Amino acid sequence: xxxxxxxxxxxxxxxxxxxxxxxxxxxxxxxxxxxxxxxxxxxxxxxxxxxxxxxxxxxxxxxxxxxxxxxxxxxxxxxxxxxxxxxxxxxxxxxxxxxxxxxxxxxxxxxxxxxxxxxxxxxxxxxxxxxxxxxxxxxxxxxxxxxxxxxxxxxxxxxxxxxxxxxxxxxxxxxxxxxxxxxxxxxxxxxxxxxxxxxxxxxxxx
Length: 206
Prior knowledge:
The chain is mostly helical. Helices cover about 65% and strands about 0% of the residues. It has two domains: about 140 residues, Orthogonal Bundle (Rna Polymerase Sigma Factor, Chain: A); about 70 residues, Arc Repressor Mutant, subunit A.
């Protein structure tokens, strides 16, 4: 699979069940940082960005039970990006000011597809962080460091092997095991296959 799904089907279906607190916790852990970062990119202070995020989450809670994926309507991600963008615009209208956006036009005129693409990048990055955090508890610190140093910090397996006092082969095995676990965590959340490069994972082999 070379494309990530437009929505996170398994998680969205679980959100429709009010009693599924774990689903809501997962959703907030993934999307709260995304919404906050998007708002702060557009000039909001941290406290205002978090307040805006609470409004976004409230809107999700009000509408998720009736959400019905529709190609003409657009993906859930697109809807969430639009809600975030519109609330940022409303914030500055209320404040009677506009943020300074070097190289860009006024906030209200930002190209919507470009904004959604940026939202998607932030989403994929956060999913990788979320899944990696979940996966980490399954491994020893040495195994985790072998993965992190080679895949995230892009250090060579040879250098990491010397640093951790492992064989190069052991470093490759450790990296492979952790990557497989991260994929498993994401698949359980999404109900689909996953491309780690799209999730902000390793982009090149060492």
